[in-house]
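Internal QA ticket QA-208
Title: Verify multi-chain structure generation after dependency bump
Assignee: T.L.

Test input:
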Amino acid sequence: MIHALKHIIIIALIIIILFPMFWIITTSVRRDNAAFSTKLVSNRYTLQYYKDLLLNKKNVPQLISQMKMIINLSSEYSSMSKEELLETLNRTETELVKQLDLSIKQVEDANEYVRRIVDFTDSKKDSFIVEFEAIKTQEREFYERELEEIINSSQSVYTRLSMDMIENIDEVSGKERTKYLYILSSSSPLFVEEYEGLVKSLNNHIEFLDKEYSAWIESYGNKMGEELKAQTRQIQDEFKELIKSGGFSYSKWNREINLKGYMGLRSQLQTELSETDYNSWQDLTTLFKATAKEIDNVISEYEMGKQEILETLKSSIGSQEELTQEYLQLEAERKLLYDSAVSMENKLEGYQLEIMDLEDKIAILTDKMEKALYELNQMKDIFAVELSKEPSEIAGNPQRLQTLMISIESLISDIQAMGDISKGSQTIRSAWDTLAWFTKNESRISSHIGYETLENGINVLHNAINPIKNDIEDFALLNERYKQIQTDMEQVQIMIAQGSEELDQIQKKSKEAYPQYANIMEEEKKVKKALGLISLGVEVEGVSDYESLSKYSTKLSTFVNSMGIIENPAKKALSDMASFDKLVYLKKNYFDEAAYLSETVLKIKELLARFDQKKKTYINLIHANVMIKVEELDDIDTIQKTAYNRFSSQLNKIGRIASDLSERPFYSEISGDLEKIDKNIFESMQFWIKKPEQQFMRWLINTIILAVVTAGLTVLICSLGAYPFSRMRFPGRKHGLLFLLLIQMFPIVMGMVALYLLLRFIGQFLPGFGLDSLWGLGLIYLGNIAFNMWLLKGYFDTIPDSLEEAAMIDGSTRFQTFWRIIIPLTAPMLAVVFLIVFMANFNEFVLASVVLQSPRNYTFAVGLQSFSYGAYQMEWGLFTAAALIGALPMVILSLSLQRYLVSGLTSGAVKG
Amino acid sequence: MLKNVAKILLWLFIAFLNAFLTWAAIVLFSNDAQELGIIMIIIIFFIDFAVFNPKGYPYRYTIPALSILLILTVYPIFYTFKIAFTNYGTGHLFTRKQVVEQLMNTYVTDEGALPFSYKVYVQMKDFAPTENFVLIFDDGQERFLSQTPRILSRDKSGNTTRSVAEYRKIDNGGVLIGKQNYEVIYSLKDEEEIIAVEMVLDGEKKQYQYFFSFDDPDTISNQRAFMSRIYLKYLDKIELNHPERSMIRFGQVYGFRKLVNARKKYSIEKEFFEQKGNIIERTVLVNAATGIPLEEVDGTFYEITPQGQRIEVGGYRGYVGARNFEKMFTDSRFTGPFIKILIWTFLWAILSVLFSFVIGLGFALVLNDSKFKGKSLYRTLLLIPWAVPAFISVLVWRNGFFNETYGIINKIILGQWFGTDAIRWLGDAFWAKVSVLIVNIWLGFPYMMMVCLGALQSIPGNLYEAASIDGATKVKKFGSITVPLLMTSVTPLLIGSFAFNFNNFTNIYLLTRGGPAMSDSLTNAGSTDILISYTYKLAFQGERGQDFGYASAIALFIFIIVAGISFIQFRFAGTFEEVNRG
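Actual output:
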């Protein structure tokens, strides 16, 4: 009993613990993109990711881009000769054509299955209507019940519903109208009476007109031509139709029938009939006119009655209308205030941005200014030196000095006028100081200008001042704007504060008014629902075949979308039908998409043929370094991209539908076909989808070579090095052992900075062993031998000396005994060390990521890491497949070597 | 006979090895790598001693191992020590000599100088352009011609670093440069336009045809040939010289490379000063425009503006004393993150060992029942997390499980099954720590389980029997026999595991990259960073600049801690006795 419990607990724990492994395995064979799926496992399997990783064959988009690269002489193609280029180009093209054909073939192969699906849909269609017929009554009764419930829910809802029905009665279909009248007969019998009166009166008028017209035709009809007779009859029918339709008004009649019809016929009748006969026609027309007026009166009377009834109804539900109005007004006001607050905030933000921009500009100006200032100050220093001398005896050119002074003075006044600018004022201030120095010393300068230095200095100053002058103007402009924005900002802030107060008040009011409004809205919603239920009930009656059922189902789903889910009896049948509709969609679209695919392929092939004719010329041109634009390839690229965009949505959707449906029992008959369709589409799309660039095989081979070579060398060097420590006595042996022990404490990872710099240094002389090279990395891995030497020394100690002594007595040398006796005896141990080092180096990540930089040199660990960051982070299929390929051999090795790996001694070397 | 041949070959090999290593030592000495050079010399002496001295026989076996240990283990340890006391890093990557050379190759162009517009004329061969060309450029008034440049120096990857050519003014339709006469051919339509240049070389007439100009859209199709064959190879670093006029180069003008007048920014001068009675000579760089010498402080060159401002212009690597260690412990901007990381490193190692030990022990106690069926199968299954290479499992956890949006923990387990909010596994400091611990415990408990199983099995059964006879309860037996005996054999392994996790870079780096970043740090320290990953980031992730010096200082610090731990471990495991015994 206790054991059973133990088993259960331990199995449960193992399931939880091994869940990540289960996830890796299932994700690596999923056909859908696991990262975006909401399912933990999928029933659509594929080995495509493994194929991609191990074969890494280029597909259509990659081949196209490769062709473009060849023709652009990119990367590896830049050093190829013309013949090689042509050869590569041809090979790429052949492969491209092959893949295009294969992608079509996959889709065409699926045609057969789709045809079977067509048969299936045709045969199953009727089953839905049969199923529905059985529950039709229930469905109708359900609507009746629901309607009843709404009507009985409250008097005001009922009244509201009545109002809506009365208002809409003229616009709904006959069957619905009957239903409306039935419901209204208890809530508003007055209106029913009114309405029925109207219908009766209209019918009476029609009857009367019919009689009059028939009488007239009887007496005069034989005198008219057949055509004319038909025309008059038509006009008569139109008149009747207008009355029946419910939209009758005198003016409309007069415009559409009287004027155009009766009047239009007049001249014809006049010629065909005698005068008396014609007069009787006119009499008839007058009669019609009078009747039409009368009908108009009847209708407006009815309308008035209707309005009256509506008014009464309205008053019976009280002031709700006003409440709604009030609330809506409040809401509108609130919204207005809110919007203005938002726009104010935006404005404020805009100002803040502009201020930042201005500050940037000012900073740039300040920079420039500083440079000019620097020159100015230099000049000041030079001047100061000159001025300390005796006044010059030679008269200089005072004119230039004067103009200079004038411009300096104007600058100074400009700066003074400008006031203080928060940014850059420092610079301007010191410019002002320097400039002021010149004006202050004007008299002294003028007495010294005879000196050449000053003469030149004045020129330089002229030049130095000009940029400052320009900048000062800019500064002033920016400053003005800056200030203005600041005041504007303050204003806006005040406005925002005021607005928010007002907004608060309104919000409070609107909150108070809300419950009543919500109540009214609730009732309105019920009314709408009731109207929809009536309409649905009528629609249910009319269902007789698949198409009308589909129409009903669509109507129902729109109703459900706007009103919320209802639990009607036919729900299951209808949702089955919705999924069946998907199948119909699949059937309808599949052939279109297949045709589109072959059309695309054809277009691409056509362009390829055109490209074929020109490719030699192209190659000659690019070889002569002429920049060319190959339109054919660009076009192919565009076509491929557009086509892929469409496929990826359409065909993938079809595939998804197929796989979804194949799981349902209803489709078990065709589930095989559906699965195959899904599979074929997937296979075909493999030629088209954009696949990530990866060099997985290369990484794997890199790692294996590196690990095997380093492990082999490590075992060789360590067994050689450990041997004398175990077998011989020599000075320094004990210190040597201690040295080994100490040195292996220093984990090689900690020296990564030094190793990195060491490799960089080595790379300057031996590029093959430098950074970003596998051999360099191998060199570092070899540095990890101290520990293994220590280990092997221990193993050698366990071999008894007597064997070697015997061999030495027989005349073999020391080396021979080592090579012929010790090595074979310890071979199993050496193999274990080899495997442990192999695994350690296979799994090493840190140093590899430090040393290796270009993807083509990556080891497996670094490469796998690149799968999990950046653009391909979501390519879980590829990632897990790669992880599994790498993990499987390591798991097997680890499990079979666990005895050695877990023993205390080796713990530090591989795992913790 | 054969033996003699082998012997001769061996001698030759030794001779060759000696020669090679001597050459290597010389190269190393001349390249500022004295330490490595000394190691080479030690190796030479060691080899020769072992080979030629009969007493050296046992040492022969250790030649390869010793050489590798010296170069790849001892030297890096030493080197780590050495750079821990330098400022080696971004901004201080090169030696002083290299930096001086760099500065000497800095040019300035006159502010607002007008660039010359230029046209390239190329000799054609088989309708393809050759690399024989002349440049004609003008400043709006005068026109100049320069001949095909000579390349003076290239860097290691073959890019030209300096090329020179002479230029002369075009006079009367011709130019004389050196002994070579160039004749200019004008277009018949437009007398200003030069369509070709002719010259005579070895009695043969050569013609340069108009090939390319940036200002001429008609030649745009030749741009690629111009850029790859001519510009990058000859013109990018060219100095166009004239005996009387200014030097012309391609310099930055408004962000574009244009042909402009240029001059060297710095000149070199010698300075003498007295130190301890000796006159010492030193090179000083001087700004050619202002005449103010550059100041040198702590391996950095500063330009001094006449206002006395210091502007950094370049740095070289140099000895800075214990500054890196000061940074670690006294500079508040560095100490804060460092202490946080140090605490977390200990916490991380202790918690990892503790949890994986407790869980592993639990499983071991269950599986240690000899009557329990199927235990070897269970044991193998439980070993799988440990058997999978750590970097793979960590990446799987990171990608498939902890991803905030797509990871199945948030998306399916929390989202669908429990309907709770998503957890920011890797984005939140606390949860990131939780996730690295979860993964590490998952990876580590099977090892602890195996270790405990082994220890439990080695406890003699008769102890329990004796205890049973004395009437001890199960709990009592567990507390007084199992725990003490287990702990004696397991403690060294726990310490070893602690040391391993202390430096468990792979888990931390692959799962979180040390992130999320600490907000208040000058360096790129993250909340889950342990010392070793922090070192790595300082040294190799240059977002905020590489700092090899500081990284090495931290590595040294780690070394001291790990060495301490190892020492304790060896004491527990009796490894030192093994040295003395063997």
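Spot checks passed. Residues 452-542 of chain A form the longest helix (91 residues).
Status: verified.
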